[in-house]
Design brief:
The chain has 251 residues and is α/β, with parallel strands linked by helices. It has 11 helices and 11 strands. 39% of the residues lie in helices and 17% in strands.
Length: 251
């Protein structure tokens, strides 16, 4: 449930279109619903502007499906549902709960789009250095879209062929927030940060050879960026970058 949905219930009560008892039935599981192995946070959209997102890794397909069931069964709510780090077995279980579920196999994301409402003020641009970084970049793209943003993507424009990036200067300058995904030495966010006057959220990926240390080299490179508008999230954390970008885009 988000703020507009709660206000609609209150307006219906005032207008006499909804009884207090029926209204109480709709909101009785706020702020959370205990389903035994999980406490589903129905209150999160009111507090943070976007609904709880399910982290699939470490959960069974049945657990993921039951959490999804709890999230989509509320008639008063129409928020989007997102599962990250999911697999085909989880998707099969979720599909039995919601026929509208889609599986994005490259990023391991399950999405259930129930609202197309745009709450972001501008465009979030997701930039990836290489094709190998696209799975993390796609996680960022899908998350940002499901959180109500206009999202554009620009893939495979890393520093090994910097002319590919410079060919898209207009897209860079028109974005309100940029998510920059890169592995190897993680140089791309510094380059992008030097070209624009908006926040750049850098996402290090675990892409690279042995001395990249599973993304640690890119992480340290980004943390030491000389571009002062660059900030950094955790390794392979496309989801987290999109959450931060969504918060910025609503301001």
């Amino acid at each position: 449930m988000n703020q507009s949905e709660l206000l609609k219930i209150l307006e219906d009560i005032r207008a006499g279109a909804l009884s207090p008892a029926k209204a109480a039935e709709r909101v009785k599981h706020m702020p959370f619903e205990d389903i035994g192995f999980a406490k589903v946070d129905h209150h999160r959209a009111l507090r943070q502007g976007y609904a709880e997102v399910i982290f699939g890794k470490g959960k069974t397909p049945a657990q993921v499906a039951e959490i999804v069931r709890a999230m989509v069964s509320k008639k008063a709510s129409s928020h989007n549902v997102l599962v990250t780090r999911a697999d085909a077995k989880m998707f099969a279980a979720v599909k039995r709960v919601s026929r509208g579920a889609k599986f994005h196999s490259l990023s391991g994301v399950i999405s259930i789009e129930r609202s197309k409402e745009i709450s972001g003020k501008g465009t979030i641009l997701v930039v990836s250095a290489g094709t190998s970084d696209i799975p993390v970049a796609e996680e960022a793209v899908l998350t940002a879209r499901m959180m109500g943003n206009r999202v554009e993507q620009l893939f495979d424009v890393g520093v090994a062929g910097i002319h590919r990036l410079l060919d898209h200067r207009s897209a860079l300058t028109e974005a309100r927030v940029i998510i920059c995904v890169a592995g190897m030495e993680g140089a791309l966010p510094s380059v992008v940060g030097g070209l624009v006057g908006v926040p750049v959220i850098a996402v290090p990926t675990s892409t690279g050879y042995g001395a990249s240390f599973g993304g640690v080299a890119a992480l340290l490179g980004m943390l030491n960026s000389c571009a002062s508008n660059v900030t950094v999230v955790n390794i392979d954390n496309g989801f987290g970058s999109a959450c931060v970008a969504s918060c910025i885009n609503r301001l």
